[in-house]
Amino acid sequence: MEGDCLSCMKYLMFLFNFFIFLGGACLLGVGIWVIVDPTGFREIVAANPLLFTGAYVMLAMGAMLFLLGFLGCCGAIRENKCLLLFFFMFILLIFLAELSAAILAFIFRENLTREFFTKELKTHYLRNNDTDLFSSTWNSVMITFACCGVNGPEDFEAVPPHSHSPSDEVTPEACCQREIQSREGIFVNKDACLTGVERFQNRQGCYTVILNSFETYVYLAGALAIGVLAIELFAMIFAMCLFRGIQ
Hints:
Belongs to the tetraspanin (TM4SF) family. InterPro entries: Tetraspanin/Peripherin, Tetraspanin_animals, Tetraspanin_CS, Tetraspanin_EC2_sf. This is Tetraspanin. It is a multi-pass membrane protein. Keywords: Disulfide bond, Glycoprotein, Membrane, Transmembrane, Transmembrane helix. The protein is mainly alpha-helical. It has 2 domains: 122 residues, no CATH class; 90 residues, no CATH class. The protein is 68% helix and 0% strand. It contains 8 helices and no strands. The chain is elongated, with a radius of gyration of 25 Å.
């Protein structure tokens, strides 16, 4: 009976570690995509220290989980006590790090409010000055998502024109409608857009557009994070049980 219980524990341990291996591979893939993606996310990440750190933390966590899942599978199948103990200590550290990251994300959630982004935009945005990283990032976001400002074109009423822009410019170029939403896309009517003709502008604010685009993925990521934490917890329990059962 004891041998059957140990065998069952071994295969359960292998199963949980296989899921950790897959979860690590997914995190690794998402982290790489966020950092190298050419559609504007790379610039957003680079401009925001919090997002920049988060992307690389995700990449590191994915790599560690990927390796850890592999080691856990090997330790379970080979019934190696040294590997199992190393696995338990390593996954405990990762579990605590992920828990800390979740707590920090909750504490700093106010940095993702509409008011915060609106204040930052009005303070630091320099319109068409692409030598400024903050302005270039916002321009990329507005072009990519066919949106304007945080709430709409009215966000730029207090932002003075750039020195190389026309004096009567009301709206930044990035807010103008294009035939194809990319930097190379041809403007529908650039002059009319810049002087405030609404039908040639992207009127919807970026906050709403991006929130709607990523709302499903945010909930999915939250559910995935909870699932990963639960799997890690069970994997630690099975690792200790298997460790104690191996003679």
